[in-house]
Structures are given as structure tokens and as C-alpha cells.
Amino acid sequence: MLEFTPAFTAIGLFTLLLAVVSLLPLSQRTHWLIRLWDFPRLQLTAVALTLLVASAIWLPIASSTTWFLVSIQVVCCAWQLWWIFPYTPLAARTVPRYHRKHDEKSVEEHLRILTVNVLEHNRNAVELVQMINRERPDIIVAVETDDWWEKQLTDIEDDLPNVVRVPQNNLYGMMLYSVWPLENVQVENIIEDNVPSIHADIQMPDGRVVKLRCVHPAPPSPTENEKSKPRDRELLQVAKRAPNDSGPVIVTGDLNDVAWSPTTREFLRVSRLLDPRMGRGFFNTFHAQLPFLRWPLDHLFHSEHFMLVKMRRLPKFGSDHFPLLIELALKRQD
Fold first, then answer.
1. What would you report as the CA-atom Rg of the chain, rounded to the nearest whole angstrom?
2. pLDDT digit string (tens) for 257-306?
């Protein structure tokens, strides 16, 4: 009979906790305490693997209780891996890679898009401006921008003269900068007051129009919304618009949701947009200050009109988010 040693007690308790937090997201409830566990699936996979190793080292192999715990750990590990696998390099890529030698003649224009959550009370604007000058993006979507950030970013307007400014002091300010003209600009509070989104048509040099939708819904959290319904509803509303947009479409911003969540999967299904992360890596953009608690919160989804040139997570600059830089190649019209 298995003795209740300290090792068994610790491994058993952590296995039980792993099982509980793995099952919680299966609930349809939208409370933040439940939806929270959509996020750390990579970390929970690591916990499951650690428990498997610990069980092999400290628990007797002949015990049926050991095998019971191990079976729970294996199931939890496989379950978490099922969610995150599409974002590993082993999975299929949904967005083709641009190869200059073969694809240059079939491409009209390149778009370098920088999505960045500046963290409203972060005051290290100099480093971000230097990064922008170094990377030379064509479009910048900056969120959590207040009046102070609006003033600090005026230096980049010589290169990016087409600007939509929605500074706010509530963590939901948004700024859009573009080298190309912006038309049909709309600033819209889709679900919640004072939580804006920006929608605009980018006028490309060849005359084509790219629809750009920039979003930053409020997250489910103890300090924001108790439930995820406002975030989920906003994302679904944006997703429903994408199939009705004629021509190329890009949706980007801090979605306050991970790439592998049920909400994001539903967004991709409804919008018919593509995620360039798939088959390439996690590109975790949050939390910049906590290396062991990171997941992808900042996103860019696009229509099939594009190929991916490159995708990079840029260095941290004082925010709790890393900037995300994506270069797309716009295919020529048939």
C-alpha cells in the first residue's frame, strides 16, 4: 500500500490542481476566474511534464496510485498541447511565406505594420521612438495612449503623416499612424463606452484599398470587466464585418485574448481571416517583465490577399507588452 509521503502528497495535490484548472475552461461561464485559464496553456503543459518527471523519480512504479496520477498528468498534458500545437513550428502554416526570388512579380506592395501596447503610465517614449525610426514601419497601431503619449509620438509624424488620434486616460486610448492616406475613418465604441476601435481604408500607391480594423477590447479581470462577454462580443462583431469587406482586410491590436482561445478560434472561423502565427511560433507579447508568464495577446489577422514576409517580436521598452512587427506582401490582383 502506498504511504502518504511528502512527495506523494505534493505530487497528488499539484496533479489535482492541474486537472481542475484544465477542466475549468470547458465551462461556458464567462467569469474571469474561469476564462483566465485559457491563457497559460504553455505553462500548464510545462507543469504537467514536470509532474510526470517528479512521479517517475519519487513515486513507486509498482503502485496503482502512481499510475492513476500519471494518467491524469498525461491527459492534462495532451489536452493543453492540443490547444497550443497549431502555433508550434510542427503545425501547418495557414499563411504562405513570401520568397522574393519566386514571388516578387506576383506582389504589388509590402506593408510593415507595428502593433504596440505602450502601457499608459510607461514614460520611456524615447526608446520606442528610436525603435520606430530603426524599424521604419509603414503603419503603427499604438494602444493605451494618453495625452502624454500623443505629444511624445509627434516626432514620428514627419514619416507617418496620416494620423488618427484617440488619446484617453483610461487605458483604452488608441493612435493610428500611416505613411499612406487614410480614408473613410471611423472611431467606434462597438460594445463599451470609452473603449474605441479605429476603422479605416488605407489608400495604397497603386490605387488598391486595404481595410484596416484596429481593436483593443477590455479584458476579463478583477480590475476591468468581471466577465469576458464585452470582449467576446466586440471581437465577434469585428469578425462578422470582415467577410463583407471587399478586398484586402487586416485586423490588428491588443485583443486581450490568446491565439488559441475558443473566442479567437471563433473569430477566425467567422471572419475567414488568417493568423500568420500558425505553424511559426507563439511570439508571446505579454508579459514583457515576467519571462515565465508570457502568452500572445497582440495580434494581426489578415485576408488571403497577403503573404508573410517576416514576423518579429521587438525588444521591450518599459511596457508590459513587447511590440509586434509584421511585414506582409500584398498579392497582385488577377
1. 22
2. 999 999 999 999 999 999 999 999 999 999 999 999 999 999 999 999 99
Question: 100-331 has which fold?
Answer: Deoxyribonuclease I; Chain A (3.60.10)
Q: How many CB atoms lie within 10 A of CB 67?
A: 13
**Per-residue pLDDT tens digits for 200-235:** 999 999 899 999 999 999 999 999 999 999 999 999
Q: How far apart are CA 187 and CA 168, in angstroms?
A: 13
Contact status, residue 13 vs residue 55, Cβ threshold 8 Å: no
Backbone angles phi, psi at 241, to 5 degrees: -80, -30
Q: Which cell numbers in the block locate residue 191?
A: 460594445
User: Which residue ranges make up each domain of the chain?
Assistant: 6-87, 100-331
Give residue-wise pLDDT tens across range 84-100.
Answer: 999 999 999 999 999 98
- Alpha carbons 167 and 147: distance in angstroms, whole number: 6
Of residues 146, 155, 157, 139, the one with CA closest to residue 123? 146
Joined grid coordinates for residue 8: 506523494
SS3 assignment, position 188:
strand
* Grid cell listed for 76: 492534462
Q: Which helix (H) or strand (E) holds 327?
A: strand 324-331
Q: Which residue has 469578425 as its cell numbers?
A: 239
State the DSSP code for 133: H
Length of the chain equals: 334
